[in-house]
């Protein structure tokens, strides 16, 4: 189970670091309202891309931790 979790965190981390703009576009389309076609204002700046990349880095660290734990058993 640890190996599966490590793979999932690795996949999420790589996706968040290499394609943060695609994730922001996906979030914007999911949060669109009929009165506001651009989506929420917090999705318009560069800060959200930085935040997604930081979350990707933390996900990669978590993947390394799970890989280490899977070898300890």
Which value, in Å, is the CA radius of gyration?
Answer: 16 Å
Chain-averaged pLDDT: 90
Query: Helical residue percent?
Result: over 70%
Seen as an oligomer or otherwise, the chain set is: single chain
* Proportion of residues in extended strands: under 5%
Number of strands: 0
Structural classification = mainly alpha
Distance between the termini: 12 Å
Would you list the SSEs in sequence order as H and E?
Answer: HHH
The largest β sheet comes out as:
none
Per DSSP, the total helix count is 3
Weakly predicted, low-confidence segments:
none
Using the alpha-carbon principal axes, give the shape: elongated
Characterization of the model:
It is a single chain. Helix content is 73%, strand content 0%. It has helices at 2-18, 20-30, 47-71. The mean pLDDT is 90. Helix 1 (2-18) runs antiparallel to helix 3 (47-71) and helix 2 (20-30) crosses helix 3. The chain is mainly α and 73 residues long. It is elongated, with a radius of gyration of 16 Å.
